[in-house]
Amino acid sequence: MADLPTVIIERIIYFATVYANKSLGDWKNALRLLWINREWRHAAKRILYSCAIVDLNCKFIEEGKTVDTYFTDTKAVLMANTNVLLIEQNDSGAMAKQFVIKYREDGLRKLLLLCIITALAINESDCPAVSVIKEGSDAAKNGQALTDDQRSSCLKAATDVAQLLVNRLPNITDLDICTHCKEVYFCQFVNTLISSYNGKLTGFHTNLPVNRTTMLVSETLKNVTIRSHVDTIIHMPTINPHPLEYLMLNVRRTQFRWDMFRYNNNSNVIQFDNLRSLKLFFVEANFGSTQVLGPNDHIPQLVFPKLTTLILYYLPLTTNEVQYLMKAPLRILNYSGCLDTAHMICNQSIGNLADLTININLYNVHIPPNNMIAKMNKMFSKTAGIAKVTLTLTWQSNIMDFTDVYWPHLTHLYLNGPFDLYSLFLAIPRMPNLVDLLARSTLSYTSDRVLLVLHTLKRDNAGPVSSKLKHIKFLKVKRTKQLVEAFDELTWYLPELESVDFS
Q1: pLDDT tens for each residue of 91-137
Q2: What is the DSSP letter of 492?
Q3: In sequence order, which ranges of 90-147 are alpha helices (DSSP H)?
Q4: Alpha-carbon distance 439 to 437, whole Å?
Q5: Residue 77, domain member (yes or no)
Q6: 249 within some domain
Q7: What sections of 123-271 are H helices per DSSP?
Protein backbone atom coordinates (compact mmCIF):
# COMPACT_ATOMS: atom_id res chain seq x y z
CA MET A 1 0.00 0.00 0.00
CA ALA A 2 2.91 2.32 0.72
CA ASP A 3 4.16 1.78 -2.83
CA LEU A 4 1.05 3.27 -4.42
CA PRO A 5 1.66 6.43 -6.45
CA THR A 6 0.83 9.64 -4.60
CA VAL A 7 -1.91 10.56 -7.06
CA ILE A 8 -3.67 7.22 -6.41
CA ILE A 9 -3.39 7.66 -2.64
CA GLU A 10 -4.84 11.15 -2.89
CA ARG A 11 -7.81 9.92 -4.94
CA ILE A 12 -8.50 7.14 -2.42
CA ILE A 13 -8.29 9.64 0.42
CA TYR A 14 -10.57 12.04 -1.42
CA PHE A 15 -13.36 9.50 -1.92
CA ALA A 16 -12.96 8.27 1.67
CA THR A 17 -13.31 11.80 3.06
CA VAL A 18 -15.68 13.41 0.57
CA TYR A 19 -18.46 13.67 3.20
CA ALA A 20 -16.19 14.51 6.12
CA ASN A 21 -17.33 18.13 6.11
CA LYS A 22 -21.01 17.17 6.34
CA SER A 23 -21.04 16.08 9.98
CA LEU A 24 -18.69 15.46 12.85
CA GLY A 25 -19.60 11.77 12.77
CA ASP A 26 -18.41 11.41 9.18
CA TRP A 27 -15.29 13.38 10.04
CA LYS A 28 -14.51 11.03 12.93
CA ASN A 29 -15.02 8.00 10.71
CA ALA A 30 -12.52 9.38 8.20
CA LEU A 31 -10.02 10.21 10.93
CA ARG A 32 -8.78 6.61 11.12
CA LEU A 33 -7.11 7.14 7.72
CA LEU A 34 -4.43 9.15 9.54
CA TRP A 35 -3.14 5.99 11.22
CA ILE A 36 -2.58 3.81 8.14
CA ASN A 37 0.92 4.99 7.24
CA ARG A 38 2.94 8.14 6.69
CA GLU A 39 1.87 8.69 3.07
CA TRP A 40 -1.80 8.29 3.89
CA ARG A 41 -1.43 10.49 6.96
CA HIS A 42 0.13 13.26 4.88
CA ALA A 43 -2.62 13.15 2.24
CA ALA A 44 -5.52 12.79 4.68
CA LYS A 45 -4.32 15.46 7.09
CA ARG A 46 -4.55 18.21 4.48
CA ILE A 47 -8.14 17.24 3.71
CA LEU A 48 -9.44 16.49 7.20
CA TYR A 49 -7.79 19.42 8.95
CA SER A 50 -9.09 21.79 6.30
CA CYS A 51 -12.59 21.56 7.83
CA ALA A 52 -13.26 22.77 11.38
CA ILE A 53 -16.64 21.64 12.73
CA VAL A 54 -18.75 22.49 15.75
CA ASP A 55 -21.61 19.98 15.66
CA LEU A 56 -24.05 20.41 18.56
CA ASN A 57 -26.65 17.90 17.41
CA CYS A 58 -28.00 15.69 20.16
CA LYS A 59 -26.46 12.36 19.14
CA PHE A 60 -23.74 12.83 21.78
CA ILE A 61 -26.25 13.33 24.59
CA GLU A 62 -27.33 10.18 26.39
CA GLU A 63 -30.98 9.28 26.65
CA GLY A 64 -32.58 10.51 29.84
CA LYS A 65 -30.19 13.41 30.43
CA THR A 66 -30.97 16.99 29.57
CA VAL A 67 -28.72 19.57 28.03
CA ASP A 68 -28.68 21.52 31.29
CA THR A 69 -27.55 18.41 33.20
CA TYR A 70 -24.56 18.07 30.92
CA PHE A 71 -23.84 21.74 31.06
CA THR A 72 -23.69 21.80 34.85
CA ASP A 73 -22.04 18.39 35.26
CA THR A 74 -19.22 18.41 32.76
CA LYS A 75 -17.75 20.23 29.81
CA ALA A 76 -16.38 17.02 28.35
CA VAL A 77 -19.57 16.08 26.55
CA LEU A 78 -19.82 19.39 24.74
CA MET A 79 -16.11 19.32 23.97
CA ALA A 80 -16.80 16.09 22.10
CA ASN A 81 -18.90 18.11 19.67
CA THR A 82 -16.02 19.70 17.81
CA ASN A 83 -12.80 18.79 16.02
CA VAL A 84 -11.29 22.25 16.47
CA LEU A 85 -9.34 21.30 19.60
CA LEU A 86 -7.79 18.28 17.89
CA ILE A 87 -6.82 20.39 14.89
CA GLU A 88 -5.20 22.94 17.19
CA GLN A 89 -3.40 20.28 19.23
CA ASN A 90 -1.70 19.25 16.01
CA ASP A 91 -0.70 22.87 15.29
CA SER A 92 -2.97 22.86 12.25
CA GLY A 93 -5.33 25.74 12.96
CA ALA A 94 -3.90 27.60 9.98
CA MET A 95 -4.81 24.63 7.73
CA ALA A 96 -8.54 25.05 8.36
CA LYS A 97 -10.30 26.55 5.33
CA GLN A 98 -13.92 25.70 6.12
CA PHE A 99 -15.76 26.39 9.38
CA VAL A 100 -19.07 24.63 10.02
CA ILE A 101 -21.55 25.20 12.86
CA LYS A 102 -24.38 22.67 13.02
CA TYR A 103 -27.35 22.48 15.31
CA ARG A 104 -30.94 21.67 14.39
CA GLU A 105 -32.70 20.66 17.62
CA ASP A 106 -34.55 22.76 20.18
CA GLY A 107 -32.68 21.94 23.38
CA LEU A 108 -29.66 24.20 23.04
CA ARG A 109 -31.12 27.21 21.28
CA LYS A 110 -31.07 29.58 24.22
CA LEU A 111 -27.56 28.44 25.13
CA LEU A 112 -26.11 27.95 21.68
CA LEU A 113 -23.37 30.58 21.85
CA LEU A 114 -22.42 29.51 25.36
CA CYS A 115 -22.29 25.86 24.28
CA ILE A 116 -20.01 26.81 21.39
CA ILE A 117 -17.78 28.65 23.86
CA THR A 118 -17.67 25.54 26.05
CA ALA A 119 -17.06 23.17 23.15
CA LEU A 120 -14.14 25.30 21.97
CA ALA A 121 -12.73 25.39 25.51
CA ILE A 122 -12.76 29.19 25.56
CA ASN A 123 -12.36 30.37 29.15
CA GLU A 124 -12.24 33.72 30.87
CA SER A 125 -8.47 33.88 30.76
CA ASP A 126 -8.64 33.58 26.96
CA CYS A 127 -11.53 36.02 26.64
CA PRO A 128 -12.93 37.96 29.63
CA ALA A 129 -16.16 38.44 27.69
CA VAL A 130 -17.09 34.80 28.39
CA SER A 131 -18.28 35.75 31.88
CA VAL A 132 -20.67 38.31 30.37
CA ILE A 133 -22.19 35.67 28.08
CA LYS A 134 -22.61 33.30 31.04
CA GLU A 135 -24.35 35.95 33.11
CA GLY A 136 -26.66 36.87 30.26
CA SER A 137 -27.45 33.23 29.58
CA ASP A 138 -28.23 32.53 33.24
CA ALA A 139 -30.56 35.51 33.36
CA ALA A 140 -32.34 34.39 30.19
CA LYS A 141 -32.74 30.83 31.51
CA ASN A 142 -34.28 32.16 34.72
CA GLY A 143 -36.75 34.25 32.76
CA GLN A 144 -35.17 37.55 33.76
CA ALA A 145 -35.26 40.40 31.26
CA LEU A 146 -31.84 41.86 30.49
CA THR A 147 -31.26 45.55 30.91
CA ASP A 148 -30.12 47.64 27.96
CA ASP A 149 -26.60 47.71 29.40
CA GLN A 150 -26.58 43.92 29.80
CA ARG A 151 -27.77 43.40 26.22
CA SER A 152 -25.13 45.80 24.94
CA SER A 153 -22.44 44.02 26.95
CA CYS A 154 -23.54 40.61 25.64
CA LEU A 155 -23.45 41.84 22.04
CA LYS A 156 -19.94 43.18 22.53
CA ALA A 157 -18.94 39.92 24.23
CA ALA A 158 -20.26 37.92 21.26
CA THR A 159 -18.09 40.07 19.00
CA ASP A 160 -15.03 39.44 21.19
CA VAL A 161 -15.59 35.68 21.21
CA ALA A 162 -15.92 35.64 17.42
CA GLN A 163 -12.71 37.62 17.05
CA LEU A 164 -10.88 35.16 19.30
CA LEU A 165 -12.04 32.30 17.07
CA VAL A 166 -10.85 34.20 13.99
CA ASN A 167 -7.41 34.43 15.60
CA ARG A 168 -7.40 30.67 16.25
CA LEU A 169 -8.61 29.81 12.73
CA PRO A 170 -7.16 32.65 10.66
CA ASN A 171 -7.47 31.24 7.13
CA ILE A 172 -11.15 30.32 6.84
CA THR A 173 -12.47 30.82 3.30
CA ASP A 174 -15.81 28.99 3.62
CA LEU A 175 -18.42 29.62 6.34
CA ASP A 176 -21.32 27.17 6.79
CA ILE A 177 -23.79 28.09 9.54
CA CYS A 178 -26.31 25.25 9.59
CA THR A 179 -28.79 26.15 12.33
CA HIS A 180 -32.07 28.01 12.63
CA CYS A 181 -31.20 29.53 15.99
CA LYS A 182 -32.04 33.23 15.82
CA GLU A 183 -30.77 34.19 19.29
CA VAL A 184 -29.48 37.73 18.97
CA TYR A 185 -26.07 37.10 20.55
CA PHE A 186 -25.39 34.08 18.38
CA CYS A 187 -26.38 36.11 15.31
CA GLN A 188 -23.97 38.84 16.42
CA PHE A 189 -21.25 36.17 16.77
CA VAL A 190 -21.94 34.92 13.23
CA ASN A 191 -22.08 38.40 11.70
CA THR A 192 -18.71 39.18 13.27
CA LEU A 193 -17.27 36.03 11.69
CA ILE A 194 -18.65 37.14 8.33
CA SER A 195 -17.13 40.60 8.63
CA SER A 196 -13.78 39.28 9.85
CA TYR A 197 -13.39 36.66 7.12
CA ASN A 198 -15.03 38.74 4.42
CA GLY A 199 -11.93 39.55 2.39
CA LYS A 200 -11.01 35.85 2.17
CA LEU A 201 -14.36 34.14 1.71
CA THR A 202 -14.99 32.03 -1.38
CA GLY A 203 -18.10 30.37 0.06
CA PHE A 204 -20.82 31.43 2.49
CA HIS A 205 -23.82 29.35 3.57
CA THR A 206 -26.26 30.22 6.34
CA ASN A 207 -29.75 29.53 7.68
CA LEU A 208 -29.68 32.68 9.81
CA PRO A 209 -31.01 36.17 9.28
CA VAL A 210 -28.02 38.13 8.00
CA ASN A 211 -27.45 41.61 9.35
CA ARG A 212 -28.53 44.14 6.74
CA THR A 213 -25.27 46.03 7.29
CA THR A 214 -23.26 42.93 6.37
CA MET A 215 -21.20 43.39 3.23
CA LEU A 216 -20.41 40.21 1.29
CA VAL A 217 -18.27 42.07 -1.17
CA SER A 218 -15.07 40.05 -1.47
CA GLU A 219 -13.81 39.65 -5.03
CA THR A 220 -13.17 35.98 -4.17
CA LEU A 221 -16.73 35.13 -3.11
CA LYS A 222 -18.01 32.53 -5.59
CA ASN A 223 -20.58 30.44 -3.73
CA VAL A 224 -23.41 31.89 -1.58
CA THR A 225 -26.39 30.15 0.02
CA ILE A 226 -28.79 32.06 2.28
CA ARG A 227 -31.83 30.44 3.89
CA SER A 228 -33.60 32.91 6.14
CA HIS A 229 -37.26 32.35 7.01
CA VAL A 230 -37.81 35.19 9.45
CA ASP A 231 -41.31 36.42 10.16
CA THR A 232 -40.55 40.11 9.84
CA ILE A 233 -39.47 42.21 6.90
CA ILE A 234 -35.70 42.30 6.96
CA HIS A 235 -33.19 43.53 4.45
CA MET A 236 -30.69 41.14 2.94
CA PRO A 237 -26.94 41.79 2.99
CA THR A 238 -25.16 43.66 0.25
CA ILE A 239 -23.52 41.14 -2.09
CA ASN A 240 -20.95 41.78 -4.78
CA PRO A 241 -22.46 40.15 -7.90
CA HIS A 242 -19.34 40.12 -10.06
CA PRO A 243 -17.39 37.11 -8.64
CA LEU A 244 -20.47 34.96 -7.92
CA GLU A 245 -20.62 31.60 -9.70
CA TYR A 246 -23.30 29.86 -7.60
CA LEU A 247 -26.12 31.64 -5.76
CA MET A 248 -29.03 30.12 -3.85
CA LEU A 249 -31.53 32.21 -1.88
CA ASN A 250 -34.32 30.57 0.11
CA VAL A 251 -36.07 33.51 1.75
CA ARG A 252 -39.35 35.36 1.98
CA ARG A 253 -40.25 37.46 -1.02
CA THR A 254 -40.60 40.49 1.27
CA GLN A 255 -36.90 40.16 2.13
CA PHE A 256 -35.64 40.08 -1.43
CA ARG A 257 -34.78 42.94 -3.75
CA TRP A 258 -32.32 42.90 -6.62
CA ASP A 259 -30.84 46.08 -5.17
CA MET A 260 -29.00 43.91 -2.64
CA PHE A 261 -26.54 43.25 -5.49
CA ARG A 262 -26.01 46.93 -6.21
CA TYR A 263 -22.48 47.01 -4.79
CA ASN A 264 -20.28 49.94 -5.82
CA ASN A 265 -22.74 50.56 -8.61
CA ASN A 266 -24.91 53.62 -9.11
CA SER A 267 -26.13 52.69 -12.58
CA ASN A 268 -29.41 50.98 -13.40
CA VAL A 269 -27.61 47.83 -14.58
CA ILE A 270 -26.62 44.93 -12.30
CA GLN A 271 -24.35 42.48 -14.08
CA PHE A 272 -23.60 38.99 -12.78
CA ASP A 273 -20.43 38.51 -14.79
CA ASN A 274 -19.57 34.96 -13.68
CA LEU A 275 -22.84 33.54 -12.34
CA ARG A 276 -23.48 30.05 -13.74
CA SER A 277 -26.14 28.70 -11.39
CA LEU A 278 -29.00 30.66 -9.79
CA LYS A 279 -31.57 29.11 -7.46
CA LEU A 280 -34.31 31.27 -5.96
CA PHE A 281 -36.72 29.66 -3.50
CA PHE A 282 -39.46 31.71 -1.86
CA VAL A 283 -41.44 30.30 1.02
CA GLU A 284 -44.80 31.96 0.33
CA ALA A 285 -46.47 29.62 -2.15
CA ASN A 286 -48.85 32.07 -3.83
CA PHE A 287 -49.87 29.70 -6.61
CA GLY A 288 -52.26 31.89 -8.52
CA SER A 289 -50.76 35.36 -8.44
CA THR A 290 -47.86 37.12 -10.10
CA GLN A 291 -48.29 40.39 -8.17
CA VAL A 292 -45.48 40.49 -5.62
CA LEU A 293 -43.98 43.96 -5.77
CA GLY A 294 -45.44 47.27 -4.76
CA PRO A 295 -46.14 50.03 -7.29
CA ASN A 296 -43.03 51.94 -6.22
CA ASP A 297 -40.63 48.99 -6.46
CA HIS A 298 -38.12 49.29 -9.26
CA ILE A 299 -36.45 46.39 -11.07
CA PRO A 300 -32.95 47.28 -12.28
CA GLN A 301 -31.72 45.90 -15.58
CA LEU A 302 -30.25 42.45 -14.91
CA VAL A 303 -27.52 40.89 -17.05
CA PHE A 304 -26.47 37.22 -16.81
CA PRO A 305 -23.87 36.58 -19.55
CA LYS A 306 -22.82 33.11 -18.27
CA LEU A 307 -25.93 31.80 -16.50
CA THR A 308 -26.68 28.24 -17.65
CA THR A 309 -28.75 26.80 -14.76
CA LEU A 310 -31.83 28.54 -13.37
CA ILE A 311 -34.12 27.07 -10.71
CA LEU A 312 -37.13 29.10 -9.54
CA TYR A 313 -39.32 27.67 -6.79
CA TYR A 314 -42.70 29.31 -6.15
CA LEU A 315 -41.33 32.63 -7.27
CA PRO A 316 -43.87 34.99 -8.78
CA LEU A 317 -41.97 37.10 -11.30
CA THR A 318 -42.63 40.40 -12.98
CA THR A 319 -42.51 40.62 -16.76
CA ASN A 320 -39.19 42.50 -16.61
CA GLU A 321 -37.61 39.86 -14.36
CA VAL A 322 -38.66 37.08 -16.73
CA GLN A 323 -37.28 38.93 -19.75
CA TYR A 324 -33.92 39.61 -18.11
CA LEU A 325 -33.53 36.00 -16.91
CA MET A 326 -34.55 34.48 -20.23
CA LYS A 327 -31.91 36.48 -22.09
CA ALA A 328 -29.24 34.41 -20.32
CA PRO A 329 -27.61 31.50 -22.22
CA LEU A 330 -29.64 28.98 -20.22
CA ARG A 331 -29.30 25.24 -20.71
CA ILE A 332 -31.27 24.03 -17.68
CA LEU A 333 -34.45 25.74 -16.46
CA ASN A 334 -36.62 24.43 -13.64
CA TYR A 335 -39.66 26.47 -12.64
CA SER A 336 -42.18 25.63 -9.91
CA GLY A 337 -45.15 27.88 -9.34
CA CYS A 338 -48.23 29.32 -10.96
CA LEU A 339 -49.44 28.73 -14.50
CA ASP A 340 -49.36 32.41 -15.49
CA THR A 341 -45.65 32.79 -14.74
CA ALA A 342 -44.84 29.47 -16.45
CA HIS A 343 -46.75 30.68 -19.51
CA MET A 344 -44.84 33.97 -19.43
CA ILE A 345 -41.51 32.09 -19.26
CA CYS A 346 -42.34 29.83 -22.21
CA ASN A 347 -43.32 32.82 -24.32
CA GLN A 348 -39.68 33.94 -24.28
CA SER A 349 -36.91 32.61 -26.52
CA ILE A 350 -36.14 29.28 -24.82
CA GLY A 351 -35.16 27.16 -27.83
CA ASN A 352 -31.52 26.88 -26.71
CA LEU A 353 -32.46 24.99 -23.56
CA ALA A 354 -31.42 21.35 -23.18
CA ASP A 355 -33.65 20.64 -20.16
CA LEU A 356 -36.91 22.40 -19.26
CA THR A 357 -38.91 21.41 -16.17
CA ILE A 358 -42.23 23.06 -15.32
CA ASN A 359 -43.98 22.22 -12.04
CA ILE A 360 -47.45 23.76 -11.87
CA ASN A 361 -49.47 23.65 -8.67
CA LEU A 362 -53.15 24.47 -9.05
CA TYR A 363 -54.20 24.11 -5.41
CA ASN A 364 -56.76 26.78 -4.46
CA VAL A 365 -56.60 28.16 -8.00
CA HIS A 366 -59.87 28.27 -9.89
CA ILE A 367 -59.18 28.24 -13.62
CA PRO A 368 -61.77 26.90 -16.08
CA PRO A 369 -60.37 23.59 -17.40
CA ASN A 370 -60.68 24.64 -21.05
CA ASN A 371 -58.76 27.87 -20.41
CA MET A 372 -56.07 26.00 -18.51
CA ILE A 373 -55.53 23.38 -21.24
CA ALA A 374 -55.52 26.07 -23.95
CA LYS A 375 -52.88 28.05 -22.07
CA MET A 376 -50.69 24.95 -21.60
CA ASN A 377 -51.10 23.99 -25.27
CA LYS A 378 -49.78 27.40 -26.26
CA MET A 379 -47.05 27.20 -23.64
CA PHE A 380 -45.67 23.86 -24.82
CA SER A 381 -45.90 24.79 -28.49
CA LYS A 382 -42.88 27.02 -27.81
CA THR A 383 -40.65 24.16 -26.62
CA ALA A 384 -39.57 22.69 -29.96
CA GLY A 385 -35.92 21.66 -30.07
CA ILE A 386 -35.53 21.12 -26.31
CA ALA A 387 -34.22 17.60 -25.65
CA LYS A 388 -36.01 17.09 -22.33
CA VAL A 389 -39.31 18.80 -21.49
CA THR A 390 -40.92 17.82 -18.18
CA LEU A 391 -44.33 18.82 -16.81
CA THR A 392 -45.43 18.09 -13.26
CA LEU A 393 -49.07 19.00 -12.72
CA THR A 394 -50.71 19.02 -9.28
CA TRP A 395 -54.35 19.92 -8.69
CA GLN A 396 -57.23 18.94 -6.43
CA SER A 397 -60.61 20.11 -7.71
CA ASN A 398 -61.80 19.51 -11.28
CA ILE A 399 -61.38 16.11 -12.92
CA MET A 400 -58.77 16.64 -15.61
CA ASP A 401 -59.93 15.73 -19.09
CA PHE A 402 -57.12 15.43 -21.66
CA THR A 403 -59.35 15.50 -24.74
CA ASP A 404 -58.04 18.87 -25.94
CA VAL A 405 -54.40 18.38 -24.92
CA TYR A 406 -51.75 18.95 -27.59
CA TRP A 407 -48.20 18.80 -26.17
CA PRO A 408 -46.07 17.54 -29.07
CA HIS A 409 -42.69 18.32 -27.50
CA LEU A 410 -43.32 16.99 -23.98
CA THR A 411 -41.00 14.11 -22.97
CA HIS A 412 -41.86 13.53 -19.28
CA LEU A 413 -45.29 13.93 -17.65
CA TYR A 414 -46.06 13.56 -13.94
CA LEU A 415 -49.69 13.91 -12.81
CA ASN A 416 -51.03 14.27 -9.27
CA GLY A 417 -54.77 14.87 -9.02
CA PRO A 418 -58.14 13.59 -10.25
CA PHE A 419 -58.10 12.75 -13.95
CA ASP A 420 -59.94 10.72 -16.54
CA LEU A 421 -57.69 7.76 -17.38
CA TYR A 422 -59.39 6.95 -20.68
CA SER A 423 -58.90 10.49 -22.02
CA LEU A 424 -55.25 10.33 -20.88
CA PHE A 425 -54.63 7.24 -23.03
CA LEU A 426 -56.37 8.88 -25.98
CA ALA A 427 -54.16 11.97 -25.56
CA ILE A 428 -50.87 10.04 -25.79
CA PRO A 429 -50.74 10.27 -29.62
CA ARG A 430 -50.91 14.06 -29.20
CA MET A 431 -47.78 13.77 -27.04
CA PRO A 432 -45.70 11.81 -29.59
CA ASN A 433 -42.35 12.48 -27.86
CA LEU A 434 -43.49 11.43 -24.39
CA VAL A 435 -41.17 8.72 -23.00
CA ASP A 436 -42.02 8.69 -19.28
CA LEU A 437 -45.43 8.91 -17.58
CA LEU A 438 -46.10 8.87 -13.84
CA ALA A 439 -49.73 9.19 -12.75
CA ARG A 440 -51.24 9.46 -9.30
CA SER A 441 -54.99 9.89 -9.45
CA THR A 442 -56.88 11.02 -6.38
CA LEU A 443 -59.91 9.24 -7.83
CA SER A 444 -60.52 5.67 -6.76
CA TYR A 445 -58.95 3.73 -9.62
CA THR A 446 -59.20 0.10 -8.56
CA SER A 447 -57.51 -2.63 -10.56
CA ASP A 448 -60.87 -3.67 -12.01
CA ARG A 449 -61.62 -0.12 -13.09
CA VAL A 450 -58.25 0.22 -14.83
CA LEU A 451 -58.86 -3.11 -16.59
CA LEU A 452 -62.20 -1.78 -17.81
CA VAL A 453 -60.49 1.32 -19.23
CA LEU A 454 -57.94 -0.85 -21.06
CA HIS A 455 -60.71 -3.09 -22.41
CA THR A 456 -62.66 -0.06 -23.69
CA LEU A 457 -59.50 1.40 -25.21
CA LYS A 458 -58.84 -1.79 -27.20
CA ARG A 459 -62.47 -2.16 -28.24
CA ASP A 460 -62.91 1.39 -29.55
CA ASN A 461 -59.48 2.28 -30.96
CA ALA A 462 -57.05 1.00 -33.56
CA GLY A 463 -53.34 0.72 -32.94
CA PRO A 464 -50.48 1.12 -32.83
CA VAL A 465 -50.30 4.91 -32.40
CA SER A 466 -47.32 7.19 -33.01
CA SER A 467 -45.75 7.26 -29.55
CA LYS A 468 -42.28 6.96 -27.96
CA LEU A 469 -43.70 6.17 -24.52
CA LYS A 470 -41.44 3.63 -22.79
CA HIS A 471 -42.21 3.79 -19.07
CA ILE A 472 -45.49 4.12 -17.16
CA LYS A 473 -45.90 4.16 -13.39
CA PHE A 474 -49.24 4.30 -11.58
CA LEU A 475 -49.38 5.30 -7.93
CA LYS A 476 -52.26 4.23 -5.68
CA VAL A 477 -53.16 1.36 -8.03
CA LYS A 478 -52.85 -2.16 -6.64
CA ARG A 479 -50.73 -4.52 -8.71
CA THR A 480 -52.59 -7.67 -9.79
CA LYS A 481 -51.74 -10.50 -12.15
CA GLN A 482 -54.57 -9.54 -14.52
CA LEU A 483 -53.43 -5.92 -14.58
CA VAL A 484 -49.83 -6.86 -15.36
CA GLU A 485 -50.96 -9.14 -18.19
CA ALA A 486 -53.22 -6.44 -19.64
CA PHE A 487 -50.40 -3.89 -19.70
CA ASP A 488 -48.00 -6.47 -21.15
CA GLU A 489 -50.35 -6.60 -24.13
CA LEU A 490 -50.60 -2.81 -24.42
CA THR A 491 -47.87 -2.75 -27.07
CA TRP A 492 -50.71 -3.10 -29.57
CA TYR A 493 -51.40 0.56 -28.76
CA LEU A 494 -47.99 1.81 -27.48
CA PRO A 495 -45.40 0.01 -29.62
CA GLU A 496 -42.29 1.17 -27.68
CA LEU A 497 -43.64 0.50 -24.18
CA GLU A 498 -40.98 -1.28 -22.07
CA SER A 499 -42.19 -1.19 -18.47
CA VAL A 500 -45.28 -0.56 -16.36
CA ASP A 501 -45.07 -0.28 -12.59
CA PHE A 502 -47.65 0.03 -9.80
CA SER A 503 -47.36 1.15 -6.19
Answers
A1: 888 999 999 998 875 554 456 788 788 878 888 888 888 888 887 77
A2: G
A3: 112-119, 129-141
A4: 6
A5: yes
A6: no
A7: 129-141, 148-168, 184-197
